[in-house]
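Input.
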Amino acid sequence: MKILCIIPAHNEAESLPALLVEIKRYGYDAVVIDDASTDDTAAVAQCEGVTVLSLNNNLGIGGGVQTGFIYAVRNGFDVAVQLDGDGQHNPYFIEQVVAPIMAGEADCVIGSRYIPQARDSEYYTPFPRRMGMIFSTGILMLFTSLIVHDTTSGFRALNRSAFSFFAENYPVDHPEAEALLLLHQEGFRIKEIPIKMRSRCQGQSLFTFLKAAMYPLRVCVGFFGLALKPSKRRSAK
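Output.
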């Protein structure tokens, strides 16, 4: 199966080189979505021989990831693996994240830090981010009865059916939790597996205190908006 690593990146010139070297070492194809960076993100990715798609305007994580899904569809990939450009997602775990898809057990697999029996105790989650994750976990369970322990994880693998759907339908703002609601509504199978995260060594996180404070409101608006939309896959059948 052809596996593509999709790496959305905004001003990650310092973190990308080491990450891309690791991905190539494991033998995976990669595409970097340069989300209107003001540094050398595109240049350093090109120096590593990786395909770069540069966006003229900053679309945020949702627009960047969706661009990667469109690329995966057009280039015949079977599995798309989403990783953050800051290097916190270890490519070592790609094989484990992809395995349930290869076995036909899931359409979307989440690399999770917080599965109770296999929690990543070495990774420190800032309090505002942790509270946002707990909130989105609760609202997802309220809407779907699904229990997903790491709703904000950006380390995910999707089969062709799932990422083809997302190429046409993907949440724009804070998409991680909303994407899980959308997958559930459309009948896709979701699974979590444990991974370990690394601390950011280079660059600066885009997640600010203000964004953390606004996160619950944005998630609520997004969830209620999706809940009112009819299922596109089912209505097409």
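The chain has a mean pLDDT of 88.
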